[in-house]
Amino acid sequence: MRVGVLTGGGDCPGLNAVIRAVVRKGVSEYGYEFVGFRDGWRGPLENITCELGIPQVRGILPRGGTILGSSRTNPFKIENGVERIKENLAANGVDALVAIGGEDTLGVATKLSELDVKVVGVPKTIDNDLGATDFTFGFDTAVNIATEAIDRLHTTAESHHRIMVVEVMGRHAGWIALHAGLAGGANVILIPERPFDMDKVVEYVESRFRTNYSPIVVVAEGAVPKEGTHSLQSDERDAFGHVRLGGIGDMVAKELEKRTGKEARAVVLGHVQRGGTPTAFDRWLATRFGLHAIEAVHDGDFGMMVALRGTDIVRVPLTDATKELKLVTPELYAEAEVFFG
């Protein structure tokens, strides 16, 4: 059997660990051949391939990013995109495809599976918002990076008696903000699931100053005030229709400075969260996903995605992977609210 592998969407730590595990087990246990498709769905769409075997995956376990490259190409938005993918898979003798990606990449995989393309999915998203799996790799790395940044900002904030606003990733879900904010001792955490009251944020900040310590506000990039969606988004949209977010951290900092009279600074962590070497947990999870993904291929269990449930790796239908987002619940947010102010 000849198996294609691709990585789509935003890069994140752990992608190379998945690729390595898929290839190592596929070659050593099943005798499969592999072909890498470059730059997400653009690879099979434009027939951009690379050699993929055990020599190519040596040493990549601790590396961030993806050796296959990535993109946000959507073949369903391109004329004859599906037909071109099918033709290129056949031309390369590809019998099955392992697609590693998030909501958009797996959404394409789901549609292709319904059109008789043999696909197995592996969940990948920094935001940890895919509903069918307890955790996605890359998330733990992002949380650790954000937590370290918050730890460092506490000291500079207290030295200058400033408000520090830390903007982290999280378009629809506030998992990074919640985990990193709680771990880093933030005084306020703002997430997309809970539109915030700026008056209440000001109250928390002023309460913190009364303790002779300086406040840290952690805000997810998709957070919005109760008054309505902030207007600091770009008009640019990607191939999947997503608006490019940005600016909420700066907006919150300026508003807090105006209302409290205290100096405020915004720090946008941005792509720093998704770059660099993965944590031990992400290497472990990504490796297990890869091993179970190629096992699903071997079993002929296509149209499925591997997922973490508790400590077990299970298979779920690709349709479940993108059916609904996993959001922060009111109960979990209430746990963090105990430490606000």
From TrEMBL:
A Pfam family reported for this protein in Swiss-Prot or TrEMBL: PFK
Major localisation: cytoplasm
Binding-site residues, substrate: 125-127, 162, 169-171, 221, 265, 271-274
Enzyme class (EC, first level): transferase
Pathway: Carbohydrate degradation; glycolysis; D-glyceraldehyde 3-phosphate and glycerone phosphate from D-glucose: step 3/4
Regulation: Non-allosteric.
Cofactor: Mg(2+)
E.C. number(s) listed in UniProt: 2.7.1.90
Localization: Cytoplasm
Alphabetized HAMAP family for the sequence: Phosphofructokinase_III (MF_01976)
Subunit structure: Homodimer or homotetramer.
Name of protein: Pyrophosphate--fructose 6-phosphate 1-phosphotransferase
The organism of origin for this protein: Thermasporomyces composti
Native organism taxonomy: Bacteria, Bacillati, Actinomycetota, Actinomycetes, Propionibacteriales
Gene that encodes the chain: pfp
